[in-house]
Amino acid sequence: MTQQQLLEKYNVPVPRYTSYPTVPYWNETPPAEKAWKQKVVQAFQRQNEISLYLHLPFCEALCTYCGCNKRITKNHAVESPYIEAVLKEWRLYRDLLPGKPVLRELHLGGGTPTFFSPQNLHHLLSAILEDVDLAEQYEFGFEAHPGTTSPEHLQVLRELGFTRLSIGIQDFAPEILAIINRKQTFEDVVQVTKRARELGYESINYDLIFGLPLQTKAHVIDTVKKVKALLPERIAFYSYAHVPWISPSQRAYSEADLPTGEEKRELYELGCELLEEAGYIEIGMDHFALPKDSLCQAMEAGHLHRNFMGYTPFNTELNLALGASSISDSWDGYIQNEKKIERYQEIVDSGRLPIIKGHLLSGEDEILRHHILNLMCRHETSWQQEEQQCAALYAGIARMDELERDGLVKREPYRLTVEPAGYPFIRNIALALDARYWRRKPEGALFSQSV
Q1: Of the candidates 65, 115, 181, 152, which has an alpha carbon nearest to the alpha carbon of residue 323?
Q2: Which one of 8, 26, 213, 379 is least enclosed by Cβ atoms within 10 Å?
Q3: What's the CATH superfamily of 26-322?
C-alpha cells in the first residue's frame, strides 16, 4: 500500500493519548476529594519524587490557532491574585504529603507564562522551591513567547534553576503569523535563543506546526533553514488540529485556507526529512532531539516517558498540576482542576482542592495505559507476565489485522512492535487498544485527525 493510500485510510479522528483513558472517557462523576487525596498519598509513599506543572493561563493577545485554556487580557493586575491561589493550592498538597517531596521536574505552561512579571514569577517559584528537596538530576522548563520573554525573565528563571525553555514559533513566515495573530518576529526568536544560551540554558525547544493556514512546502523549507541556523536541542513538530467546535477562534480563517489530506502529509514528511538531515533524531510522536539532548539519551536508554507535559526523560509516580484547568496524575488516578479562573480561585480560597472532573483507573485501565505508553515511547510492548495481561488487551491485539496487513505493526506471541511505516500512525495503533473507545464510540466530532 502506498503512503498516500495509507494516509487516506488512516487519517481519521483519533485521541492524542496524553492519558489513558482519554479525558472524554473518564468516569462521569469525578472522584471525591478524599479519594483523590488518598491516591496522592499512596503515590508519594511508593515514590517521594514528584513532578510539578503550573498552568499560567493569561495572554495579552489571542493566537487564533490555539486550543489551550487561556484568558486574553492586558490587565496585569490579575497576576497577584492568581499566584496566591496557586500557592494556596500547593500548600493544600504540601500539607497532605507525609514528608518533604523531592522535585524531579517543574514546568510552567499556559497561556503565556512570561505574561507574568519576572518579580511575580520569582515570588511564585521561590515559595514552592523552598519547600522541596531537589532530585540529584532535575529539569525545570518553561514555555516562552518570543515576543514577551525579556532578558530579565530569562535571568530570574535561570537563577531559580531553570535550564530548559520551549519557544512557541509555529512558523517563521510573516503572512502565516499574521493570519494566526501571532505577534513575534524572527529577530525576537534569535534574541531569546541567544540570551538563553549566554545565561547557561542547556536545552532549548522550538514548537513548530505543520498544516497551518496558508502554509506551503516553501514555508516549511524556510522555517527549517532558520531552525538549522539556530540549532535548538529539541523540536516539537505538531500537526495543526482544526477543532473549531472546541476552539471558536479557529473560525478566523476558512477551511479553504488549510492544507489538508495529501498536502498536509507532504508538509509533515518534508519537515521530518529536513530535520533528520539537520541531525535531529525522531523521538516518539511529534518530537525530535539532537543526540546530546537528555530526551534522546533517555530514548536510547529505554526510559523515555510521556505525560501531560509531553515527552520527558523522567518517570515520577506523582505528577501534581497546579492552576486553573491543569490535570494531575497519580498513575492510578487523574483529576482536572476547575477551568474558570475566578471559580478556581474561590474554591482554593475556601480550602478545597478545585476538582471538577477525574478518573480512578481500574486494573484494566492500568494495564492498557502501560501498553499504550510503551507504544508511544518505545514503539513496542510485551506482556509475558500475567499482571501485564487482560481480556481487553487481547481484544485490542485482535483489532490489528488490517494494521498488520498494511505493514504498520508486527504481532508476535506476547509482543507487539510498531514498524517504521507505522510511526506516523501511532495514534491509530494505540486506538486499537483503547477499550473504552470501542465500547462507546463517539457519535459526533470529538478528536482531531491523526495527520
Answers
A1: 115
A2: 8
A3: tm_1862 like domain (3.80.30.20)
